[in-house]
Write a structure and sequence with these properties.
By secondary structure, the chain is an alpha+beta fold. Helices cover 52% and strands 15% of the residues. The strands form 2 sheets. It has a 4-stranded antiparallel β-sheet, with no helix packed on it. It has a 3-stranded mixed β-sheet with strand order 4-1-7, with no helix packed on it. The longest helix is centred in the middle third of the chain and has 47 residues.
């Protein structure tokens, strides 16, 4: 006979609700079952050496948490570690807490009623004997004990509802994860839209200045603004640094272009130059470190530039 030492890793919070089954791999009949300690360790003794099917189940899951083949060695203890996936325990139903058995409390209250009933029929002037007094006192004591037992059965100590607290905590965690995922996706979409908007602004300035965008100064402009589109998956803090650097470099190139066109009053006062100058200032101001803050900054960009970024990218109809 051999012993099996099993260690369950991955999600200690559910260890108390797990059940371990060793099954015959041919017939699927359960050979031995046990529950792990809080640390996830299980010891099964006096096992015949050979192959088994190990099943880890949870009371709230219809299918096993883990199912795998193992082999118990004929010599010495067999030591096995298994890793369970915490994602299997998301969105679990609220624990089914067994209904409290109130029958004994009801019986005790009924017994008190029957005991004190004769005492309620005393007539004026009739003596209350020691036996009557003792029966009444004993009934009051029994009633007090029954009420105390009732409070323990129907309301947890301290009025906590552990199953609801755990479910609320799980829902809060799932919602926070979903919100973070959606915020990240929305932020990256806004980065792409704003990046295309800024590139289009640069192209408009180059066209107004009659600068070839494929070489020289024109290509340098587009290379600078293009960094925003190549770093859309960065963290908010990292992307913020990229945006500020882009703003500084774009502002420097714009100043150089304005100096070169100093004699062209129409170009200097053109709406294309004014809009790109506003964009440069907005890029320099991007100090965001979270997805939520960055989305707020993108809304500020839309308000400052006077329209939605997607409208500028796709153009207006009519």
């Amino acid at each position: 006979m051999s012993d099996l030492n099993l260690s369950i890793l991955g999600f200690p919070a559910v260890n108390p609700e797990l059940k371990i089954e060793l099954r015959d791999p041919a017939t699927r009949t359960v050979v031995k079952e046990a529950q792990p300690f809080l640390d996830g360790t299980v010891r099964m003794s006096r096992l015949d050496p050979g192959a088994y099917e190990l099943a880890v189940t949870h009371v709230n899951l219809a299918t096993p948490v883990l199912l795998r083949q193992i082999r118990v060695l004929p010599v010495g203890d067999t030591r096995i570690q298994v890793l369970i996936d915490p994602s299997k325990f998301r969105n679990l139903p609220i624990e089914d807490i067994p209904d409290a058995n109130l029958g004994p409390v009801s019986d005790a209250a009924q017994g008190v009623a029957e005991t004190v009933l004769p005492l309620a029929q005393k007539q004026p002037g009739e003596a209350i004997t020691a036996a009557d007094w003792n029966a009444m006192a004993s009934s009051i004591r029994d009633l007090a004990l029954a009420v105390g037992e009732l409070t323990r059965l129907v309301t947890p100590v301290g009025h906590n509802h552990g199953e609801l607290e755990r479910k609320i905590e799980e829902i809060s965690g799932n919602f926070a994860t979903l919100l973070e995922t959606l915020s990240a996706a929305m932020t990256e979409l806004q980065r792409q839209i704003q990046g295309e908007r800024f590139r289009k602004q640069v192209e408009n300035v180059l066209a107004a200045a009659d600068v070839d965008p494929t070489q020289g100064t024109g290509k340098e402009f587009l290379d600078i603004v293009g960094r925003l589109s190549t770093n859309i998956t960065d963290s908010p803090a990292r992307f913020g640094r990229t945006a500020r650097t882009t703003g500084v470099q774009l502002g420097t190139k714009l100043e150089q272009l304005l100096d070169a066109k100093a004699d062209d009053e129409e170009f200097l006062n053109s709406p294309q130059v004014k809009q790109l100058s506003e964009t440069v200032d907005l890029l320099k101001q991007q100090q965001t470190t979270t997805h939520v803050d960055e989305l707020q900054h993108q809304r500020k960009v839309d308000r400052t530039l006077g329209s939605g970024g997607l409208v500028d990218v796709l153009g207006r109809e009519g």
